[in-house]
Design brief:
By secondary structure, this protein is an alpha+beta fold. 34% of the residues lie in helices and 24% in strands. The strands form 2 sheets. It has a 7-stranded mixed β-sheet with strand order 6-8-5-9-7-10-11, sandwiched between helices. Strands 1-4-2-3 form a 4-stranded mixed β-sheet. The longest helix is centred in the N-terminal third of the chain and has 19 residues, at 56-74. The model has no long low-confidence stretch (mean pLDDT 94). The structure holds adenosine-5'-diphosphate (ADP) and magnesium ion.
């Protein structure tokens, strides 16, 4: 199968919303009056972000999900995306489920595949998403205010826990008792659900937001740094976001929830007087949210337990270029 047959067969679809989709030198989108475009790219590299033998259907889903998660964090409505793909070979048995997983999630969010690039090379998937948001209403990282409450959506830590178990399984060291646990949480690693509905519902409610892709500490840390504030975070509230945390050594549970990564939940702030609006937004989006702390003037992040004792997290969020050797983050 040649390059253009491949594009035609797996990646060319009707684009009722875009003015022009796949097939020309550029795709064309009609910008709507009063709207701003929200644009984000994420690249997934084989054996860095995923195992080369991962189910291609879930890989297609995840490649788009991590990009949609960025639109969710900004409160943007998905419009379209491009797909730049490097493939070792044109294998229909792989491309078919990959494109199905990708396009099923795209359809779910009305996000049209409008173009891309295809080349031979080590497996690598780079998606750019385009969304829209009413001018001036995007949720951003720089605008958290002292006194705001800090919230997290959904659950945290299961993706990181699943990765730990998968690595053990691949080394033949997964205890059989842990197999059920892995089966229960594996989807959190391999097919995350971008929180688009919550992001939209939080427009005009949240003061700042980010998605949690590299761990809560790091991604909340970006909000704090860009907003020039600090935070106090309740470790027990955060641990409650990981079902089954009590079956893990405490240090492992904390590491998964604070620094695990791959959660694709939202962390956001809102003034205390908007709490009812936050809960209403959560209800509207059918997405649970949990308050985990408060923004403070003193810079840095302080983690304390219910007894008020300060814990000293020595954890770091994932950094591909951190000086110390780290495990790959599939
Ligand atoms: P150009 O050489 O002008 O960059 P290409 O020949 O690479 O264009 O691609 C032909 C058409 O197919 C373009 O419209 C491009 O956007 C689209 N395309 C290429 N690869 C993909 C892909 N993986 N998914 C979707 N569209 C693709
Ligand atoms: Mg061209």
């Amino acid at each position: 199968m040649g390059e253009f047959d491949l594009i035609k067969r797996f990646f060319t679809r009707p684009t009722p919303r875009a003015v022009l989709g796949v097939g020309d030198d550029c795709a064309l989108l009609q910008a709507r009056a009063g709207m701003q475009l929200a644009i984000s790219s994420d690249m997934l590299v084989s054996e860095r972000h995923f195992f080369a033998d991962v189910d291609p259907r879930t890989l297609g889903h995840k490649a788009l999900a991590v990009n949609l998660s960025d639109l969710a964090a900004c409160g943007a409505t998905p419009l379209a995306f491009t797909l730049a793909l490097a493939l070792p070979q044109a294998d229909p048995a792989w491309l078919e489920p990959f494109s199905q997983g990708l396009l099923a999630l795209a359809d779910q969010h009305g996000c049209e595949l409008v173009g891309g690039d295809t080349t031979r090379g080590p497996l690598n998937i780079c998606i750019t998403v385009f969304g829209e948001v009413p001018a001036g209403q995007a949720l951003l990282r720089h605008s958290a205010q002292v006194g705001d409450d800090i919230y997290v959506s959904g659950q945290l830590g299961q993706a990181s826990w699943a990765l730990q178990l998968l690595l053990l399984q691949r080394q033949g060291r997964l205890p059989s008792a842990a197999e059920t646990q892995l089966a229960q949480i594996r989807a959190r690693l391999e097919s995350p659900s971008p929180r688009i509905a919550l992001g939209l519902a939080l427009r005009g409610v949240a003061s700042a937001a980010a998605d949690i892709s590299d761990g809560l500490l790091g991604d909340l840390g970006h909000i704090l740094e860009r907003s020039g504030v600090g935070a106090s975070v309740d470790a027990d509230a955060v641990l409650a976001l990981l079902p089954g945390a009590q079956t893990l050594p405490a240090a492992d549970a904390l590491r998964h929830v604070l620094a695990g990564g791959d959660d694709y939940e939202l962390v956001f702030t809102a003034p205390a007087h908007r709490q009812a609006h936050v809960l209403q937004a959560a209800k509207q989006a059918a997405t649970p949210v949990q308050r985990i702390g408060r923004i403070e003037a003193l810079s840095g992040l302080r983690l304390h337990n219910r007894q008020g004792q300060l814990l000293q997290p020595t954890l770091h969020s994932f950094d591909h270029f951190a000086p110390a050797p780290q495990e790959a983050k599939p």
